[in-house]
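Maleate isomerase
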Amino acid sequence: MTAGIKIIPAGRLPRLDDRPLEKRIGLIILATDHTTEVDFRRMVASDRIGVYVSRIHYANPVTPENLLKMQPSLTEGAGLILPDETLDAVMYSCTSASVVIGDRNIEAAIHASKPGVPVVTPTAAAVKGLQALGAKRISVLTPYTIETSRPMADYFVDLGFTIDRFTCLALSDDREMARIAPDEIASFACEALDPQSDALFISCTAVRAAEVAARIEAETGKPVVTSNLATAWACLRLCGDDRARPEFGQLMTKPYGEG
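Tokens:
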């Protein structure tokens, strides 16, 4: 019993900072995602930038139909990230769903609960990244089936890219995609890169490609953009972090929107 202990209120209220951290990024990720938080902790989070996560429901297999079902959850998912407080960016972490739902529709859904916040998708960030690297001809590697890969090929072609080679690994469960060994990712990436291409894009936020991007660049001599590398780069630049970090790959040496 502590009834005999006198509890004394302090003589003044504590001084409050405007924010616990200077910048804050919201992540909307799939319930099944193993990789995005790990990559953002490694590449983005710091004593200046906080990363705050909301998970939304997702059910495998990875098909255009299942991906589209996430759209109604985006507004609520964004609203649950530090409710009633402003964010410096919100990133929706699903590349294939960004193609199916559409970058603008994702932005509108997030703005319904977080008005005016910069919205980052893996697809839009990848396009900005490829442009920053001066890439017009690309090779693409995805973990998806042909059915899910086809809309992605259309997405890049419609934006003016030439696809020299498009390789898919025919997986349909994003949890298996997360289990592809980094050595295997690097091996498949080297095989997927057409010599004519200016760069390689490796799709899927579940795939642990960001951690081997610089290694693939060293082996192939070509720049590599991955879903999580592109979104991490975009979020850092939106937070005013313009440091060159070549250990993560060539993209991390570029200003946002260059090209």
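The chain has a mean pLDDT of 96.
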